TrEMBL record, chain A:
Name of this protein: ABC transporter permease
GO cellular component: plasma membrane
Membrane topology recorded in Swiss-Prot or TrEMBL: Multi-pass membrane protein
GO molecular function ontology, one term from the record: dipeptide transmembrane transporter activity
Species assigned in the record: Alteromonas confluentis
Pfam families the record matches: BPD_transp_1, BPD_transp_1_N
Record lineage: Bacteria, Pseudomonadati, Pseudomonadota, Gammaproteobacteria, Alteromonadales
Domain ABC transmembrane type-1: 100-297
Gene3D superfamilies linked to this entry: MetI-like
Stretches that traverse the bilayer: 12-30, 104-127, 148-168, 174-192, 232-263, 283-304
UniProtKB/TrEMBL annotation, chain B:
Annotated TM spans: 12-34, 73-98, 110-141, 192-217, 240-260
Record organism: Alteromonas confluentis
Pfam families for this protein: BPD_transp_1
PROSITE patterns: ABC_TM1 (PS50928)
Family from the record: Belongs to the binding-protein-dependent transport system permease family.
Residue ranges constituting the ABC transmembrane type-1 domain according to the UniProt record: 71-260
Location relative to the cell: Cell membrane
GO cellular component, one term: plasma membrane
Gene3D superfamilies reported in the protein's UniProt record: MetI-like
Membrane association type: Multi-pass membrane protein
Protein name (Swiss-Prot/TrEMBL): ABC transporter permease
Domain of life: Bacteria
From TrEMBL, chain C:
GO biological process: peptide transport
Lineage: Bacteria, Pseudomonadati, Pseudomonadota, Gammaproteobacteria, Alteromonadales
UniProt organism field: Alteromonas confluentis
Alphabetized Gene3D superfamilies for the sequence: Dipeptide-binding Protein, Domain 3 (3.10.105.10), Periplasmic binding protein-like II (3.40.190.10)
One function term, GO molecular function aspect: peptide transmembrane transporter activity
Protein name (record): ABC transporter substrate-binding protein
Length: 313, 264, 518
């Protein structure tokens, strides 16, 4: 257990170093240009000028030697000083906190909704394996999986926002705004996990012990709840843990599509606006979430699967 | 023939879909060779006709030519990404399993560093370095993809290297390449093939994703993700135009997923 | 196969799910004394140097000088101004009884402090112009300039020159709040997503009728169009042609389209061996299908530009110039005369060198790249090969400064300094030109004539002098005008008395009224 966590901690440090170095290289690749680009971001197209760029360059000390800047850069990173946004001038850390809360709301709701779709649907299809319902669900799942998540989002926008006008198209400002992004993310997650639930349900209800419990005289409902359910839930929950990793990539696209002001939107926006400190900050948070989820998956495997404990201890 | 014979119905369906798309992309280039960037402003949103069988976009550009161009870009990217990452990943995996020691450690360290970041984040950061560059997107996607081959191949190869069959061949003095072909590659083949098909789908999706958030290839390149975001505002005037790149993207990904065979 | 357990009834799931959806499927109710405005502008900070334009439009901040729809100046926070004989010293008389949002009163000392901070930041003119600011009394401010400058009052209308309460500035004069004098004050600011304001009851002028205003940044034009269509927003700005088409069929929304003082231009580096030749520049201009760009891309027939400044810029626009027309034949003839001969590959060559050029443009104004690709296509028909590069907008000033720029497509804003003379004095009086103006253009006689106009005191001779200047620029073509700028906005029919400020200084919220619901 200790070893798993230690490994993940090491990975987190590696991630920090690689993000820091990559973003630093980014800064260096745009030497003279950099000040101009920041000035354009800050003062707008109509006011960007050489004078504005010179002012920016002097303010940010973009003219020191590279190695010195690199060490400085890494030190700031280690001390978790992420600096200020080149565009707004506001501290990155404050913006990240704000964005993170939006992302967590989106991701949390999506997981709950995905579970609400995947478990009932998957169990239904598992019990009725190879029926018309099951095949329809397989087709739907293949359909959803075969497109980038932003296409799925677009389809939902066409249907629910443009044709039916039930929900707002994009932005935020209350529960109605969250529905389409949550639904998009949830459907893309459920497309995979519903099949996993279906498979484990099928194995469970076809197993000898389930048959036995029916013969024993339990009603189909009680037999299902008492005997099949635990055997379905465990592998499916473990799988949903793994799926969370894919969730992070989905978040980037969906937040950009729906202009949901979370980390993913911040990241793609920072790339577009060349706001390097912001880019570094958002990439770091994404990386930390990623490593954290991986660690949780490892630990839950460790706790669920006794064989691992023997090997490790 | 034997290879095709081994494919399941599902995989054959995938191959047929991809084959049709590739045929469309290549045939357009040789038979029609229309410039997909040439504008006919007076013919904006024209309905399909013989000259432009798939209609014209907001600048009167020929959608038939643009979609074929988009397919060519997607196929080229997926091909180079898959080949690069597969070759690198398999070589690195086998080498790590074979040599072990510090060599294995270094490669593992490198793989772990890449695995610590979600793939799309890494691709976005790379795209930020040189905006609008095909090469940068290619490098980033390959960098993300090779790790999967590496980890899989290393795990399988570790077993093979220790197998009595390989050990005895080695004692007989066969060269390394022969050993690889005779003992290691057969064990890897099926998995590498399905990883490659998934990898191709991943690279197509990744490029369209960065195009969709405006940090990928630049207009007027007919890249599918970029076309979708450009045509989105005209949804009310010409919904069919928007559906064209969306369905193509869908078909490519579906084709590769079917071709991969087993579930991921 | 066991029978289906009742708990997993598919129908039940469907019913529960649709009920959940329909519960939340309602657009937020409209408040009777609040309006929502949306535009693409991202307010990034309180600093007027970077986000002043949006706070000026939201009527939070004001300047000494205000601008009429025709570009003439009118009193703002100053009631009047005059200069000495050679325009090197300007005296402004401040309005009395003006209160800031924090309750403090505006006086000369406060104005001096506010402007001194503003001059220390990037401003859209040469900041070294102002040598000294003195305050002879509590209601008078005197600017001593380093040179004669006739259009000085128009500089004082720029949003970077907003007058702020001293409480806006913290340590090192950093912005800690934005306390202005406008009819609305900020209640909440979440950069870059939204600004909330409330009516300021101690406003010196006529207060508005609407109590609360919220600005929401809406990145995509089609999103904004849908916002006004569905009632999430009452006014949306900067719509693109596609969104305008969509809204035209909607009865509850009115679309307003107005020309604004902004011209889409092709900037040319006249030091380049290809472009140094005037006949080549003329050929390039003749090869443009401006009507196609105006009607086909921008869908606004009639905005084709045949000169630098658009209609509505007073004496600086010549009404009697013929409309621009494409003539590929003439363009080809001019190029041939200049020695550029067509080769088999469809490109022209002179002495073995191809007629190939680079054009940079930027992404923030989405129509530019579209126009650039249209120009690329149109010029190729005359045998000119153009490579279009999408860059950040800063590539234009940086390419100008290091001399690497060859051609650029840009949307030049003339509203920053509402007096075209100010623009001409800054950009058309030296070979160096302007970062957003001409580049390496040599016309010493015109340069000195413009400087002369800048010193003269007689208003009567201005129209003739202006015609002369515009004609010379048009003949020599240091910049190729393409189209004027049409701004589209859409307004919900819930609002009355909407008007659009062509100088984009104000959303004119204080003039608006909410129609009482029947």
């Amino acid at each position: 257990m200790k070893r798993i966590l230690l490994n993940r901690l090491l990975q987190a440090i590696l991630m920090m170093w690689s993000v820091g170095t990559l973003t630093f290289i980014l800064v260096r690749l745009l030497p003279g240009d950099m000040a101009y680009k920041i000035a354009a971001g800050r003062y707008g197209d109509d006011a960007v000028s050489t004078a504005a760029a010179n002012a920016v360059s002097a303010e940010l000390g973009l003219d020191k030697p590279a190695f010195q800047q690199y060490l400085h850069w890494l030190w700031d990173l280690l001390s978790l000083d992420l600096g200020n946004s080149l565009v707004s001038g506001a501290p990155i850390i404050v913006e990240l906190q704000n964005q993170l809360s939006f992302t967590l709301v989106l991701a949390g709701c999506a997981i709950v909704v995905a579970a609400l779709i995947a478990f009932p649907l998957g169990m239904f299809c598992g019990v009725k394996a190879d029926s018309g319902w099951d095949r329809a669900s397989l087709t739907m799942s293949t359909f959803v999986r075969s497109q980038p998540v932003f296409c799925l989002g677009l389809l939902l926008i066409f249907l629910f926002a443009m044709e039916l006008n039930w929900f707002p198209v994009a932005g935020y400002g209350g529960a109605p705004y969250a529905i389409l992004p949550v639904l998009t993310l949830a459907i893309s997650l459920a497309a995979v996990s519903s099949r996993v639930v279906r498979n484990s349900t099928r194995t469970a209800v076809n197993s000898a012990w389930f048959e036995f419990s029916r013969i024993k005289g339990l009603s189909s409902r009680r037999a299902f709840v008492r005997h099949a359910l635990p055997n379905i839930l465990l592998p499916a929950l473990a799988f949903m843990g793994i799926q969370l990793i894919g969730l992070i990539e989905g978040v980037i696209m969906i937040e950009s599509l729906f202009a949901w002001p979370g980390i993913g939107h911040g990241l793609s926006h920072a790339v577009f606006a060349r706001d390097i400190p912001m880019l570094q900050g958002t990439a770091l948070v994404m990386g930390f979430l990623f490593v954290l989820i991986n660690a949780l998956v490892d630990v839950s495997y460790y706790l669920l699967d006794p064989r691992q404990q023997e090997v490790q201890s | 023939m034997t290879f095709i014979g081994k494919l399941s119905t599902q995989q054959r369906t995938g191959a047929v879909i991809l084959g049709c798309l590739a045929l469309f992309a290549v045939a357009e280039m040789f038979l029609f060779s229309i410039d997909g960037n040439q504008q006919f402003l007076a013919q904006a949103f024209a309905s399909p006709d013989w000259q432009a069988p798939l209609g014209r976009d907001q600048f009167g550009r020929n959608m038939f030519a643009r979609l074929a161009g988009g397919l060519r870009i997607s196929f080229t990217l997926s091909l180079v990404c898959v080949v690069t990452s597969a070759v690198l990943g398999v070589l690195a995996g086998v080498a790590a399993a074979w040599r072990g020691g510090w060599f294995d450690n270094v490669l593992n360290f490198f793989a772990n560093t890449i695995l610590a970041l979600p793939g799309l984040v890494l691709i976005l950061v790379f795209a930020a370095v040189v905006p609008g560059s095909f090469v940068m997107i290619y490098l980033a996607i390959s960098l993300v993809l090779w790790v999967e081959y590496f980890r899989l191949v290393r795990a399988i190869a570790l077993n093979q290297v220790a197998s009595p069959a390989l050990q005895s061949s080695m004692l007989m003095g066969f060269g390394k390449f022969y050993l690889f072909r005779r003992h290691i590659w057969p064990a890897l083949k099926a998995d590498v093939f399905s990883l490659a098909a998934f990898g191709a789908a991943t690279s197509v999706v990744a490029m369209s994703s960065v195009g969709f958030v405006y940090v990928g290839l630049k207009p007027p390149t007919p890249e599918l993700g970029l076309m979708i975001v450009e045509l989105f505002p005209y949804y009310h005037e010409a919904p069919w135009l928007l559906l064209e790149p969306i369905s193509l993207l869908f078909l490519i990904v579906l084709g590769f997923h079917l071709l991969a065979g087993k579930a991921r | 196969m066991p029978s289906l357990p009742a708990v997993f009834s598919f129908r039940l799931i469907v019913i529960v799910f649709t009920t959940l959806l329909s519960l939340t499927a309602c657009t937020p109710p409209r408040s009777p004394d609040k309006i929502v405005i949306s535009g693409p502008f991202e307010p990034v900070s309180y600093d007027p140097a970077s986000s002043g334009y949006i706070f000026s439009r939201m009527q939070v901040i004001e300047t000494l000088v205000d601008v009429n729809d025709d570009g003439t100046l009118r009193p703002g926070l100053a009631t009047g101004w005059q200069s000495n004989d050679d325009f090197s010293e300007w005296t402004f008389h401040l309005r009395e009884g003006v209160k800031f949002h924090d309750g403090s009163t505006m006086n000369a000392e406060v104005v001096r402090k506010s402007l001194a901070v503003a001059f220390g930041k990037p401003v859209p003119f040469d900041a070294s112009l102002v040598k000294d600011i003195t305050i002879p009394d509590a209601h008078t401010v005197v600017f001593t300039l380093s040179q004669h400058y006739r259009p000085f009052p128009s500089l004082m209308s720029n949003y970077t020159m907003a007058i702020l309460s001293p409480a806006s500035f913290g340590k090192f004069n950093r912005m800690t709040a934005l306390i202005g004098t406008g009819p609305y004050k900020i209640t909440d600011f979440q950069p870059p997503h939204n600004i909330s304001t409330i009516r300021f009851d101690d406003y010196w002028g006529r207060p508005g009728t609407i109590k609360e205003v919220e600005y929401i940044t809406g990145h995509r034009s089609e999103t904004r169009a849908l916002m006004v269509k569905t009632g999430q927003a009452d006014i949306v700005y900067n719509l693109d042609p596609a969104a305008v088409e969509m809204l035209k069929s909607d009865d509850s929304v009115s679309v307003f389209s107005e020309l604004i003082p902004r011209t889409t231009l092709i900037k040319l580096n006249l030091d380049d061996p290809i472009l140094a030749d005037r006949s080549v520049r003329q050929a390039l201009s003749l090869a443009l299908d401006r009507t196609g760009i105006a009607s086909g891309i921008l869908r606004v027939p009639g905005i084709e530009a045949n000169q630098l400044f658009g209609p509505g810029m007073g004496v600086w626009h010549m009404d009697d110039l013929p409309p621009p027309s494409q003539s590929l034949k003439q363009a080809k003839a001019l190029l041939e005369q200049a020695g550029w001969q067509l080769a088999n590959d469809g490109v022209r060559y002179r002495n073995g060198k191809s007629l190939e050029m680079n054009m940079i443009t930027y992404a923030n104004r989405p129509e530019l790249i579209i126009i650039a690709t249209a120009i690329q296509d149109q010029w190729s028909q005359a045998g000119v090969k153009l490579n279009v590069h999408m860059e950040n907008s800063s590539a234009i000033p940086s390419g100008h400064t290091d001399g690497t720029l060859q051609t650029a497509l840009m949307a030049r804003n003339f509203a920053n300094i509402p007096d075209p003379l100010g623009i001409l004095l800054a950009d058309f009086t030296s070979e160096q030109g302007g970062e957003w103006g001409p580049m390496n253009w040599q016309n010493p006689s015109l340069f000195s004539r413009i400087e002369q106009i800048g010193r003269e005191t007689s208003e009567a001779s201005l129209p003739a002098q202006a015609r002369d200047v515009i004609r010379t620029i048009n003949d020599d073509l240091p910049l190729i005008p393409v189209v004027y700028y049409m701004q589209h906005s859409a307004v919900s029919d819930r609002l009355q008395h909407f008007s659009f400020d062509p100088y984009e200084r104000s959303f004119r919220i204080a003039d608006l009224q909410i129609r009482s619901e029947p």
